[in-house]
Amino acid sequence: MVALGKLCDAVLWWSYRRIEWWQRVVRRRVTFLGWLVIAMVFLSAFFGTDVLNNALGFLFCFCAFMLFVEIVSLLFRKSQVQVRSVPVGVVHSGCATPVPFVVKALGRVTRCQLALYPRGEGVKFRQFYEAREPMEERRNVVDRVLKFYRWRWMNDQRAFSASESESLELAKGEERKVMLETHFYERGVWSLVDVRAKLPGVFGLLERSRKTNGERGEIYVAPQIYPVSIDVQYGAGKTDEASLETRPQVGESQEFLSMREYRPGDSWRKVNWKAMARTEKAMVQEYEEFAVPHYTVHWNTAGMSAVELETAAAVTASVVHYFANAGEVGQVIITHGEGARDYDWSQQYEELMRALAEIQREELWAETTLPENVGLTYQITKEATEGLQNLVVDGARINGINIAEGILL
User: Which CATH architecture has domain 2-222?
Assistant: First the structure.
């Protein structure tokens, strides 16, 4: 029984990794065969028993011949398409992602479908072996040993949705752009290497997928964006009142500050011509500048579980997305292990989202220098820290609220 369970685990794990093996492996087109059986029955009704036996024998031989030709054609048939992916950039999980490909026919192609099965980190064999579907302990011994229901349950929990193209017909050397839309439900870096061509047999009874050649890239899936709400707003965004107080600096506002002599490089539009006429010197007017709030989002990954890490990554992406759309300026500091990295989201938004897609619990960054925090800091951490506006992550909740309901600052 133990050996049978191990063998079943290996077979199911192989099919789980293949992904498409359990989907539409055999496509049955019984229309032609159905009409053939009806014709044989109709003929037998007029020509007697011997004809019926001959018809059934002929039908058996004909079906066996068709199946043999179909299997042989699929065994030796090669994919005649070359697929090259077009860079997509950074996308967010939970959103429909159109992935463009350029398909080139190496030979004449008929009835060919493209299927995209992106690969991420994947589930290791030990994880597959140790995983438990809900209520699995209530199943009978055979089901627990064969683990078919666990395999089906894990296939339903996949982090992406596979997609297929329409049937393609290409002449030799022809190129065509194909869009395969899929959904990514987990952040990470997904490889687009597994693009397969689904090829039917000669009679269309069976179908086999073959790997395609060509250059493939990667797609960075950043965390999902959740709605962000702010309790109090001062000006363009939330900050303390001191951050919006005016300070005597040279700017372009209409509040007059002082007057000084002209220096090379000053704009002639700022010259006060009346004062120049009185003093016979070029005098420049200076105006008061209002302080612009500068935000710092600081995320420390120390002590976070896997669920808390995913929640904090989604919170960081959502807060940055909110501030960036509001036109606010600021930076994100991610402390991971003993090192830290900082990003200016107004200029490094895509780099930041790539970092949020890549960061994992097991991988720690090298030690770097922390920049000086300016203005109000939103601290995303597991434990509260004095002097900061804390966003406390606890499991899948942020500040005691389920992250799916939004983020309250």
Answer: Sandwich (2.60)
